[in-house]
């Protein structure tokens, strides 16, 4: 039977080299996902080490519990937002962290689950505008697309998405939603198509709507403000000589 890939950890060699986990050390993986990086850390810290694995997506917690079952006495799984890092560690009575990992963005599983609204593939077009990493959160991409004022949408697409046609896309969205609410990824994609010239779309290496979708995803999940609030906490909980790795691309 074909096994479904949840996530393939990026830069595994470099991550382990910089985190440099040693037997008996305490680590926090703030973005546990499928547990790929965590597994590599756990192998290095051995049975006397500990890893706190945090993820705001309960599906990631379930998957990593399965994948890391053989390390269950060494891992503490926490389904929470990493913005609560200091509190999480205080509640667990854990201090003096040796290493912390942030592997930012969405997992392959989140991206490839059409109904979560992250996908630009054909099978994701009927999905509602969602893009929440934590499905318990109320705020969705639908709220941004249908209720943000034009100026805020434009800024979002320019700043977070670096989308050169951000202004035109914002205008097209406003025009369409004056007639009826924009509900699906497919409807949004049609509007982005209308707002961008064909030569721009055909010249792009990746999908031409990637930048707009990324901006929406980052806003839905408040990715930059969350990181801004968490990084100082990470520095506070690390002990002298502790290591911090942040993967972003
Ligand atoms: C790129 S994946 C991590 C993959 C993981 N390193 C692995 O090897 O499988 C990012 C994960 O971080 C989680 N995540 C993103 N932002 C988060 C936040 N603010 N708090 C907690 N988890 C977050 C996502 O739900 C996702 O599962």
Describe the structure.
Belongs to the methyltransferase superfamily. RsmH family. GO terms for molecular function: rRNA (cytosine-N4-)-methyltransferase activity. Keywords: Methyltransferase, rRNA processing, S-adenosyl-L-methionine, Transferase. With 249 residues, this protein is an alpha/beta fold. It folds into two domains: 12-108 and 224-247, Vaccinia Virus protein VP39 (Rossmann fold), CATH 3.40.50.150; 138-220, DNA polymerase, domain 1, CATH 1.10.150. The protein has helices spanning 12-19, 36-45, 58-67, 85-91, 108-112, 141-147, 150-159, 166-179, 185-195, 198-203, 210-220, 223-237; strands at residues 26-29, 50-55, 75-79, 97-103, 238-247. It has a five-stranded parallel beta sheet. Helix 7 runs antiparallel to helix 8 and helix 8 packs across helix 9 (185-195). The longest helix is centred in the C-terminal third of the chain and has 15 residues, at 223-237. It is elongated and about 60 Å long. S-adenosylmethionine (SAM) binds at residues 7, 9, 31, 33-37, 54-57, 60, 81-83, 103, 105, 107, 133, 226.
Give the tags.
5 strands, Rossmann fold, five-stranded parallel sheet, alpha/beta, 13% strand, binds S-adenosylmethionine, elongated, DNA polymerase, domain 1, single chain, 249 residues
């Amino acid at each position: 039977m074909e096994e479904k890939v949840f996530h393939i950890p990026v830069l595994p060699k470099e991550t382990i080299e910089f985190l440099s986990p040693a037997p008996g050390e305490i680590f926090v993986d703030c973005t546990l996902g499928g547990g790929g990086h965590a597994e590599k850390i756990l192998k290095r810290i051995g049975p006397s080490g500990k890893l706190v694995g945090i993820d705001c997506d309960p599906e990631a917690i379930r998957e990593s519990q399965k994948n890391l079952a053989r390390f269950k006495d060494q891992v503490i799984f926490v389904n929470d937002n990493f913005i609560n890092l200091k509190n999480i560690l205080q509640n667990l009575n854990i201090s003096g962290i040796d290493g912390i990992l942030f592997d930012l963005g969405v997992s392959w599983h989140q991206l490839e689950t059409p109904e979560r609204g992250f996908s630009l593939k054909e099978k994701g077009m009927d999905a509602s505008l969602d893009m929440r990493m934590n499905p318990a959160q109320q705020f969705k991409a639908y709220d941004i697309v249908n209720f943000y004022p034009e100026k805020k949408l434009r800024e979002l697409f320019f700043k977070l998405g670096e989308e050169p046609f951000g202004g035109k896309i914002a205008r097209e969205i406003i025009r369409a939603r004056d007639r009826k609410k924009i509900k699906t990824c497919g409807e949004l994609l049609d509007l982005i198509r209308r707002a961008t010239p064909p030569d721009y779309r055909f010249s792009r290496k990746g999908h031409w709507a990637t930048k707009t979708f990324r901006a929406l995803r980052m806003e839905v999940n408040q990715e930059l403000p969350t990181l801004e609030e968490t990084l100082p906490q990470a520095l506070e909980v690390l002990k002298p000589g502790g290591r911090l790795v942040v993967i972003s691309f």
